[in-house]
Amino acid sequence: MLSLRRYRHCAACGALVQYRVPTEDNRERAICVDCGQIHYENPTNVVGTLPLAPDGRVLLCRRAIEPQRGLWTLPAGFMELGESVAEGALRETLEEAGARVALDGLLSVLSVPRIGQVHLFFRARLLDLDFAPGPESLDVALFAWDQLPWDTLAFRTVRKTLEHQQGGGAALLIDTL
Amino acid sequence: MLSLRRYRHCAACGALVQYRVPTEDNRERAICVDCGQIHYENPTNVVGTLPLAPDGRVLLCRRAIEPQRGLWTLPAGFMELGESVAEGALRETLEEAGARVALDGLLSVLSVPRIGQVHLFFRARLLDLDFAPGPESLDVALFAWDQLPWDTLAFRTVRKTLEHQQGGGAALLIDTL
Ligand SMILES: [Zn+2]
Ligand SMILES: [Zn+2]
Question: Which parts of the sequence belong to the Nudix hydrolase domain (chains A, B) (predicted)?
């Protein structure tokens, strides 16, 4: 696993931290050498949608930012404090693709332990075709399923989610990548 | 919403942070006044199981720790770096209830924006009945569905998940509490 440790200093008082196992815990945490505060580090959620047009085509975004600039992805991004999983997925779809959708249930929950993330995608219906790339996208386009850009997809979680939907997508896909 | 802000000092260099909106962002982040590092804060996942015995009874734990000490809960806890959602749920079930289970699919995904959490529960089958309370539990017991301790449950997400399973639990429950 990559080191996902983020603390060198205490977020409360600014003193140095040491990574060690606190009493009554069983893994190393960032503990402040001065005030003693324990800083926990946990996986983050990436939330997004697989937006379908009435004719069955799927909406993809071409990334304007790193990582994977220039490659195609489903609209998705980090879930924010103060929102639900569903609200986050709707917000990211609007921000990245300028698209308004209705959610049709959860399609995939994909853990990516190596980078400390969980990716959650909803199946969604486009409410209109007035989409447009947001600041993080170079382009937004609808693709027929036999013309998906499989060779230029940005992320494995996007590929897995597209493959699952292509196969019917009946059951929720829960997997680890 | 509660303030969920955790940073007063920079985790990289220890200088003070200010909360302001970075260029090309749309919400306030903790930004170091010295080294400029941006510290993102995102919701955390709580993962657990609803363990069922062969006779249909459900396993609950009575909490030995705050919050809600003394009340009954499903085995669950914070997902850790380096594990998948499923691995976290299995680990928490073992740690809190000393129980070995097989997962039978995701039962609920419950966002709790007020506290910046997402709770994910799997339906699970107990592989044996050799369970025992871990350090965070006062007691572990099997309950018939008509004898569940509804009045002394620890958390609303636990109640919602139990109610969903009691109602059949066919579809995945996605909700916000
Ligand atoms: Zn400190
Ligand atoms: Zn700094």
Answer: 42-166
